[in-house]
Amino acid sequence: MNDEEKLKYLKIALYVIGVIFIVGVPVLMIWLWPSGWGWTPPQHEYEHMIMGVYATLGVFLILAAKDPLANASLIWFTVCSSIIHGGIMLVQAINDDTDRDNLIGDVPALFVVAFVLWYLMPKRSRKQLY
């Protein structure tokens, strides 16, 4: 896939991921699948905080969809923070059997977000990192 095609799909991915961060994360954490997307035991204060952080990031990802290259640092932040967040949660889920559902919930979702955005970022934006 060339950079122009990647950019077209990146705009769509940013919008979709943004909406998921705003709407999907709270729905999954509170109603649909709390065991795969939340803490055990439930700690609503922290869950509300993380939902707020992801909703905010979602808004900015939607805004970034208009001009992804002008917002490359936000997109790379999302890639890196998703890998770090997913990695920490992976270790926690392996070490704590009450968090095992996260291994098929938010942990792979974070890695998928990171991979999709990394893959779709045009190569010329990667040069900005160095």
Topology (elements, then pairings):
Elements: H1 3-32, H2 34-37, H3 44-64, H4 72-95, H5 106-120, H6 123-126
Task: Explain this structure.
- The protein is mainly α.
- It has one domain.
- 75% of the residues lie in helices and 0% in strands.
- The protein contains six helices and no strands.
- It has helices at 3-32, 34-37, 44-64, 72-95, 106-120, 123-126.
- Helix 1 packs antiparallel against helix 3 and helix 3 (44-64) packs antiparallel against helix 4 (72-95).
- It is elongated.
- The model has no long low-confidence stretch (mean pLDDT 93).
Question: Total strand count, please?
Answer: 0
Count up the helices: 6
> Overall 3D geometry?
elongated
Characterize the quaternary organization of these chains.
single chain
Class per helix and strand makeup: mainly alpha
Radius of gyration: 15 Å
State the end-to-end distance. 23 Å
H/E topology pattern: HHHHHH
Q: Low-confidence parts lasting 5 or more residues at pLDDT below 50?
A: none
What proportion of the residues form beta strands (DSSP E)? under 5%
- Portion in helices: over 70%
Mean pLDDT, nearest integer?
93
The biggest sheet amounts to: none
Count up the domains: 1
Based on the model shown, name its key terms.
130 residues, mainly alpha, 75% helix, 0% strand
Summarize the model shown.
The chain has 6 helices and no strands. The chain is mostly helical and 130 residues long.
